[in-house]
Amino acid sequence: MKQRDEKNQPQPDKGFKIVPATLLVFTLCGLSFYLGGIFYSEKKIFEGKIVQELSKAVSSPKESTVQPLQIKSISFPECSNDYQDYTPCTDPRRWKKYGFSRLTFLERHCPPPFERNECLVPPPDGYKPPIRWPQSRDQCWYRNVPYDWINNEKSNQNWLKKKGDKFLFPGGGTMFPKGVGAYVNLMEDLIPEMRDGTVRTAIDTGCGVASWGGDLLDRGIMTISLAPRDNHEAQVQFALERGIPAILGVISTQRLPFPSSSFDMAHCSRCLIPWTEFGGIYLLEVHRILRPGGFWILSGPPINYENRYLGWNTTVEEQRAVYEKLQDLLTSMCFTVYAKQDDIAVWQKSSDNSCYEKLANPDLYPAKCDDSIEPDSAWYTPLRPCVVAPRPNLKRTSLDSLPKWPERLKVAPERISDVPGGSATTLKHDDNKWKVRAEHYKKLLPALGTNQTRNVMDMNTDFGGLAVALIDDPLWVMNVVSSYSANTLPVIFDRGLIGTYHDWCEAFSTYPRTYDLLHLDGLFTAESQRCQMKYVLLEMDRILRPEGHALIRESDYFIDTIDAIAKAVRWNCRKEDTEEGGEKEKILVCQKTLWYSSNNSTMQ
Fold it and tell me: Shortest CA distance to 253 belongs to which of 93, 106, 92?
């Protein structure tokens, strides 16, 4: 009806409207051309003045308006000798400030800014450059890790033995007194995927002296050995002294610093983690970081309890109850028994979404995490009493869907699409860039690519490009992704590399003197608004081995200030061009000197 009414309305005189409108358009166009000409002439004059002024300002690099950052002369005292194994964020001196429930005191508790130490951590008396790889896997200098406690307590289990001026590592352990080689051989029989390149990344919780991770290196499997700073004092330090990847950490109340679906395999050999307590929340964390289709291996209580219970000072009934509770929890988390023989049991995490869909029932425990729980959030993130289910839209993240190693390294992972701007093309470009850079680094630092450089840290990587470029060298790389940057760590693990989240405003979770080479690319440019440069360099000095090196790739604005602070921490540095030349970016090639403490007093 409305349309019909509109048709009956009187129509305007179209001819009367069109003529004035046409004249108006022509008038406005002419006026705009006239004014535009005037504006253009004035604009050209104005721009000419600007160009002249700019050409004067940049006529010579020496006359640049942006001057490099400069600082006053700086120096740092030596820490006292009782700080030779100082771990700032897991410092036993501070444990009494935190609760003992669930071992929360062993988690990261970094000192506030007003308690930070500004001193140089000394090496032990008699320290000398580590034994080189691969000999270091079987021996290290006693004076570099002078701990008698672990030798006295564990030598009967063949963890290690002191002989002369060395510690020897026979390859034994609590659950493998016949040697780690025989133990892993049995494991490979149970898990054939360990032999064909399917399994590439692993985590060892409660690692001892990392003999399991060390053995797996020869089998093409990269393992992060994890242990807290506890009464064994130096499990992680022994591992890194041997040239085996390791990090300080404990499953307590916070998530481990890894994304979801990171590891192909997780291992616990009598690691004393109470898996069935607190509603199985520690198992839930293992489930989170384990890839769909990945394996969880347990040896020690309650496995083989029928034959072992007497040695555990318990009863067969008690251990049977523990085992059944463990099995029930694993089943509720979509694990299935994969294999079992003697002291080893293996479960596999399901990659079938139908199992996780059943956990959506809120009456079940543990229930499926809701969408508000970010699966990859893992920097000071509390443990959650729920199952992090694999994302249904990811079809090529489960273990059986990934290419086998080493093909896996070159294939763009599915999760690269989660990274802003990430794609297969982006990854290929990044790999090509780092191939060129690594070749240049080897010219600047001949020790890179030889057995003089074993433990390497890329302090702010994107996709692990440096690690990819160095993959054929006798070294391993800890790829560190800033907790404040784009989340590229899942891509790194999907490629078959290892890494961790970290915030460089704080100390790293490792002992002093544990890395041969530290590399950073624009870290100070990215973090200078949050982190004080001197504290970052003091931390780098703490974790770098004497006579180790640092490759610092930075903008020319920061490079002189970094060099000045590096001198204050007793490094010898030289400034070099990048592979592309130019003045905007430079490389500092630094070497830490070997010095010994000159004071035996208290902390300065």
Answer: 106
